[in-house]
Amino acid sequence: MGISYNFTMPIRRVAAVLTTGVLLVSAGLSAQKPVDWTEWRGPQRNGVLTGVTAPKVWPPKLTKQWRSEVGLGYSTPLVVGGRVFAFGRQGEEEVLTAIEASTGKTVWRTAYAAPFKLPDGTGKHGLGPKSTPAYADGRIFALGLSGIFSAFDAKSGKLLWQKAASPVQPKYGTAVSPLTDKGIVIVHLGGHDKGELTAFDAATGAVKWSWTGDGPGYASPQFAQIGGLRQLIAFTQEYLVGLDPANGTLLWKQPFKNQFWTNIVTPVVYQDLVVISANMVGTAAYRVAKGPQGWTATEAWKNADVQLNLSNPVLRGTTLIGMSSKSAGQFVSMDITTGQVAWKSQGREADNASIADIGSALLVLKDSAELLVAKPGASGFDIVETYTVADSATYGQPAIVGNRIFVKDNDGLTVWSF
Predict the structure, then answer these.
(1) Is residue 342 part of a domain?
(2) From 81, 134, 223, 328, which residue has the greatest number of CB atoms within 10 Å?
(3) What's the rounded Cα separation, in Å, for the pair 264 and 220?
C-alpha cells in the first residue's frame, strides 16, 4: 500500500512502521548569507546545507522564476557568483551552459562531441551526463557519460583541457562526481576491467598521481578526517578504500560488491565509521583505525534489510535518513553508530529521492517531481508541504541556495523560490 496524505491538516504524517523509540528533533535555522553550490550534494558534499533562508510558514505554492532547456541528464547545476552552470546533452554533444541566476539569460554555451551508446536495458535513464561538475578557482570540471573529462574557464566557457574517454567504459556510463582539493581535481576514470582514480593538476590537466587498484563504481569520493589523518574515501566497483590524498597511497581496503557492480551511494563518515550501502547487499559500517600493522577497516555493523541503492542519505547528529530500495522505495531512519532502524515508511514512495537537510526541515525531491518539505519525527516524516516542481522525471539532486531551488528535470532546468 502506498502512502496517503491528509491534505486537510496543517502538518501531515507520512505513515511509518516504528521499530524503536528514537526521537528525531529538527535543528533551528536562522537567515544566513546564501552559500554557493560548488559541487556534488552541496558545499560540504553531504547534503547538509547552510545559508538557506527557509520561510517561517511554507507557502501553498512555490514561485517559478525561470526555466531553461539545458539538455538531457541528471547533473546538479552549480550556482556560483550569480551564475548557474548546467551540464547536459543536446543531440550528439555534451554541453556546459552558463546562465544568469537572476534572469535565466544564457551567458555562454560550450559543447563538444560525445558519442555514446548505452547497453540494452539501460535506456530508461538516457544519454545525458549523470555526474555533477565541480567548481574551484574560476574553473569548472565536468565528467561526461562516456568518461570524457573536461576543464572549463567559468568566466568565458573556454575549454582549458580535456581527457578522452577510456577505451573500456563503465557498463552504464559514468556517474562519479569530481572532487577538488588545493589545486588538484580528483576523479575515477576507466571501465569494468580497470580504472584509475586520478588526481590532475587543476590548471594544466597533468597527472599528479593515480591509483589503479579497481575500476570506478558510480559513487563519488569524499574527504574525511580519521585517526588524525585526512583521507580520500572512495567506493569503487568492488571495494571501499581509503587513500592519502597527497600522493594516492592506499591506506586500507575493504571488499564490498554486488552482482551488478552498481556501488552508487557516496560514503557517509561519522567519526571513525565509514558507512556504505548497495542494492541486494545492505548497509554496513566499517571502523577505520591505525594499528601496529598499519591502517585497517573492520566491520562495526551490518543491516541487510536497508539497501540504499540510488538515493544518498543525510546525517543529522547520529541519525542517518535515506531511502531504501526495499518495499519499492521506503524512507528509513537509523542510528549510524549501531545500524539499528528507528522507523521505516510503508513503501512505494519513489524510485529515487534526493534528500537535503536545511536545518529546520528536510527537502526531499522524488523522481516523480514531487518535492516534500518534511520534518523527521519519532515514527516517520511530518510533511509540512508538498510541491510539484517539474513535468518530467527528477532523478538529479537539486541545488538549494538562499531561498531558491534549482531543479534539473529530464531535459531542462527550472528555478523556484520559496
Answers:
(1) no
(2) 134
(3) 8
CA 260 to chain centre: 20
Same domain, 259 and 298: yes
Residue 270 sits in the same domain as residue 168: no
Same-domain status, 104 and 186: yes
Q: Which domain holds residue 167?
A: 71-216
Residue 175: closest CA among 215, 135, 231, 121: 215
Q: pTM of this prediction? A: 0.92
Look-up of cell digits 558534499: 45
Burial (CB count within 10 angstroms: exposed 0-12, middle 13-18, buried 19+), residue 203? middle
Given the C-alpha cell 573536461, which residue does it identify?
Answer: 150
Three-state secondary structure call for residue 222: strand
Closest CA to 276 of 297, 305, 307, 250: 307
Each residue's pLDDT expressed in tens, for the chain with a length of 418 residues:
333 333 223 334 344 443 333 333 333 334 568 899 999 999 999 999 999 999 999 999 999 999 999 999 999 999 999 999 999 999 999 999 999 999 999 999 999 999 988 776 666 788 999 999 999 999 999 999 999 999 999 999 999 999 999 888 777 889 999 999 999 999 999 987 789 999 999 999 999 999 999 999 999 999 999 999 999 999 999 999 999 999 999 999 999 988 776 899 999 999 999 999 998 899 999 999 999 999 999 999 999 999 998 899 999 999 999 999 999 999 999 999 999 999 999 999 999 999 999 999 999 999 999 999 999 998 999 999 999 999 999 999 999 999 999 999 999 999 999 9
Q: How far apart are CA 203 and CA 185, in angstroms?
A: 9
Q: Which of 199, 181, 180 is nearest to 189 (CA)?
A: 199
**What stretches of 91-221 adopt beta strand conformation (E)?**
93-100, 106-113, 134-136, 139-143, 149-153, 159-163, 179-181, 184-190, 195-201, 207-211
Give φ, ψ of 125 to 5 degrees: -95, 5
Query: Distances from the Cα of 321 to the Cαs of 3, 74, 156, 281, 376, in angstroms?
Result: 18, 22, 40, 18, 9
Question: Domain total for the chain?
Answer: 3
Q: Per-residue b/e over 368-381, b at no fewer than 16 CB within 10 Å?
A: bbbbbbbebbbbbb
Beta bridge partners of 400: 405
